[in-house]
Design a protein that fits this description.
With 471 residues, this protein is of the alpha+beta class. It folds into four domains: 100 residues, Thrombin, subunit H; 103 residues, Trypsin-like serine proteases (Thrombin, subunit H), CATH 2.40.10; 87 residues, Pdz3 Domain; 97 residues, PDZ domain (Pdz3 Domain), CATH 2.30.42. The protein has twelve helices and 27 strands. The strands form five sheets. Strands 21, 22, 23, 24, 25, 26 and 27 form a seven-stranded antiparallel β-sheet that branches. A six-stranded antiparallel barrel has the order 1-4-5-8-7-6. Strands 9-10-11-14-13-12 form a six-stranded antiparallel β-barrel. The N terminus is likely disordered.
């Protein structure tokens, strides 16, 4: 074999590769041993400085009393609240991770990482420490935004990628502080997208990954192969407390929405659709003429809501939002929640065997009527209950799906008549002594009557309860 043949063969191979292999931007499997030996190190060096450890201090309070009364035997008689409280020394715990998303010191982490903290310390990968202030939190998505006082110094940060670009099988890296051992990097792939049946938070459409995620990784970064943030690691499925290869991350599109809402006005306001429904199973799909189970079957529409005004009706099937398919109510909520108030959204609707598109306005849920938060007082069963008028804004705040007006129990004073009689936070008061209740004002009038027997109708967790109470 002549010395020139390998050189000629290499040229032929390169030309064939250029003709056969698609554009460089397309995803490819490794084609050679050299490619398999490639390293993530350059990517980690770029991304890791923007991933931080988060420590919190919580003031734990205990009773100050004579040692005799601190004995469990005496507490059984005098109660847990006997004595007065005094602060115990703060305890520092390594609770999780976070990601710097702005050079000015803006940090994103999980709500549950900093919930209840009195002090928050953020430690960078280079061991610099900053005290952090909470800009705002969003319990529904389990996200929190922190601010570091950097004194004008620019910090390394990660850019957010469009999480809708992800595909199952894409390579990802997870960076965080598992078990408090220090910054750790793990690799894996996107195992699944739009996981909505994981009951971690109210708004859920998680990225599932097999990159090792453990306790302490919460709030850390999930990054793509371009070094940008695609998700915030938030939870794992585990029977042992360690990684079993099933981890979940909040998509960066939800992260972006939360950051914009909290930093823009201090309070996150999400669009209101005003339509609710159920997933479509095989039987329902067949009865509606759908080729396969897909979408959300609408079973309630608020007449004054955006969907109702756009012409959405009970019995319609919502198939997509802005071209993104929705397969259950959770994915519909997620898609609407990642959009900004003030714009519009295009819904793909299935009705009577035909597809159509409708455009809905993205508006904030109105506080109509005003909630009129009131603690009821007097010689009646509901004394000590704090009640409010239900409105779309309050329903959204409480994560309730309802089109009904009425009065909801928001809280119960300890030791009150309402608490002792079994009323619960979240109860909807529908009627008192056969009289319909549609407002706090109406309820106050009805409980002011002098009667010897009370008949109160409640709605609780979708069930109607009738309580009869003799005075």
């Amino acid at each position: 074999m002549s010395a020139t043949k390998p050189w000629i063969s290499a040229i032929v191979f390169a030309v064939v590769a250029l003709l056969v292999v698609p554009a460089a931007a397309e995803k490819q499997v490794p084609a050679s041993k050299d490619q398999i030996q490639l390293s993530f190190a350059p990517l980690v060096k770029k991304a890791a400085p923007a991933v931080v450890n988060i420590y919190t201090r919580k003031v734990v309070r205990r009773r100050a009393m004579a040692p005799l009364f601190d004995d469990p035997f005496f507490r059984r008689f005098f109660g847990e609240g006997f004595g007065f409280e005094t602060p115990r020394a703060p305890v520092q715990n390594s609770l999780g991770s976070g990601v710097i998303v702005g050079a000015d010191g803006l940090v994103i982490t999980n709500h549950h990482v900093i919930e209840g903290a009195d002090e928050i310390t953020v430690v960078l990968a280079d061991r610099r420490e900053f005290e952090a202030k909470v800009v705002g939190t969003d319990k529904r998505s389990d996200l929190a935004v922190l601010r570091l006082d950097t004194g004008g110094e620019a910090l390394p940060f990660l850019e957010l990628r469009d999480s809708d670009e992800l595909e199952v099988g894409d390579l990802v890296l997870a960076i965080g502080n598992p078990f408090g051992v220090g910054q750790t990097v793990t690799s894996g792939i996107v195992s699944a997208l739009a996981r909505t049946q994981v009951g971690i938070s109210d708004l859920r459409s998680f990225i599932q990954t097999d990159a090792a995620i453990n306790p302490g990784n919460s709030g850390g970064a999930l990054i793509g192969m371009d070094g940008r943030l695609v998700g915030i690691n938030t939870a794992i499925f585990s029977k042992s407390g360690g990684s079993l290869g099933i981890g979940f991350a909040i998509p960066s599109n939800m992260v972006r929405t939360v950051i914009a809402g909290i930093t823009g006005g201090g309070r996150l306001v999400r669009p209101w659709l005003g339509a609710w429904g159920q997933g479509v199973g095989a039987d329902i799909a067949a009865s509606l003429g759908l080729a396969r189970p897909a979408g959300v079957l609408v079973n309630a529409v608020h007449a004054a809501g955006p969907a109702g005004r756009a012409g959405v009706k009970v019995g319609d099937v919502l198939l997509a939002v802005n071209g993104h398919e929705v397969d259950d109510p959770e994915s519909l909520k997620y898609r609407i929640a990642t959009l900004a108030v003030g714009g519009t959204a295009e819904l793909t609707v299935w009705r009577r065997g035909r597809r159509s598109k409708v455009r809905v306005a993205l508006v904030a849920p109105p506080e109509d009527p005003p909630r009129e938060l009131t603690e009821l007082k007097g010689p009646h069963p509901l004394a000590g209950a704090t009640v409010a008028n239900m409105s779309p804004a309050l329903a959204d705040e409480l994560s309730l799906e309802t089109v009904d007006a009425g009065v909801i129990v928001m809280g119960l004073r300890r030791g009150s008549s309402a608490g002792r009689l079994g009323f619960r936070t979240g109860d909807m008061v529908r009627a008192v002594n056969g009289q319909h209740v549609d407002s706090v004002r109406r309820l106050k009038t009805l409980v002011a009557e002098r009667v010897s027997r009370w008949r109160i109708t409640l709605q609780r967790n979708g069930r109607t309860l009738n309580m009869v109470i003799d005075r």
